[in-house]
Specification:
The chain is built from four helices and nine strands; from the N terminus they run H-H-E-E-E-E-H-E-E-E-E-E-H. With 255 residues, the chain is an alpha+beta fold. The strands form two sheets. Strands 1-2-3-4-5 form a five-stranded antiparallel β-sheet, covered by helices on one side. Strands 6, 7, 8 and 9 form a four-stranded antiparallel β-sheet that branches. Strand 1 and strand 2 form a beta hairpin. 15% of the residues are buried. The C terminus is likely disordered.
Length: 255
Amino acid sequence: MKSSPVGQRAHERGFTLIETLVALALMGLVLSALANLTAQWLPNWNRGLARIQRSELIGIALSRIGADLAAAEYVPANRGERRPLFDGSELSVTFVRTALGPNTGPGLDVVQLGETTEAQGFVTVRSRIPFRPLPLGSSLSEQLHFGEPVLLLRPPYRLSFAYAGKDRVWKSSWHDADKLPSAIKLTVRDAASERILAISTVTPVHVDSSAQGDCDSQPGGNCDGKPGDQNNPQGGTQGNPQGNPQPMGNQGGRA
């Protein structure tokens, strides 16, 4: 005799309606707790990630600025000027360096690093112009019209410069000097809190004086570094190239 379907279902295991409702309630509590935890943790994660990205961008900008300043050349504005074309203030610096870029050929550029105003506030940009000798008696602001700006720093960060010579005394400006500064300090601060960032750095300038100035510092003004007058480049008196004088007596053989 076969058993009825009702009798077969009575021996099957499963969840009752009450057990299902309890499971759904527990799942809802767990998901609610995870949602609250994520809502508290995710903004902190986003802020930390944004801070890391800003630090990387600032580091890249300082590396670019430092490479530019380190390559500054001792180039006068024209033939009548002996001082280098270099003008530095607390918020901007203008100098000459070898042309660099995919669309530039061999030659020199006049580069300006400084602040300009945008809708968001002050931003630090790099601008350039090909170097051409300036007319005598003209000022830099009248003759130099920079273009091709490249954005380096965005608000709220601002960049300031300081300059030092061989004496390592920092100055807020470097105008009309006979030499380039030996080092330039780059200070980045948060404009909102005026806090100076630890990523601030100092970059050395590879060239700080002209080659002629180095020759003038040599004894006798001789760039070859050899003793003796200009008419005798071998450096000796009358005699062999080693500078050893020979006797004036029997030079052709026996008496």
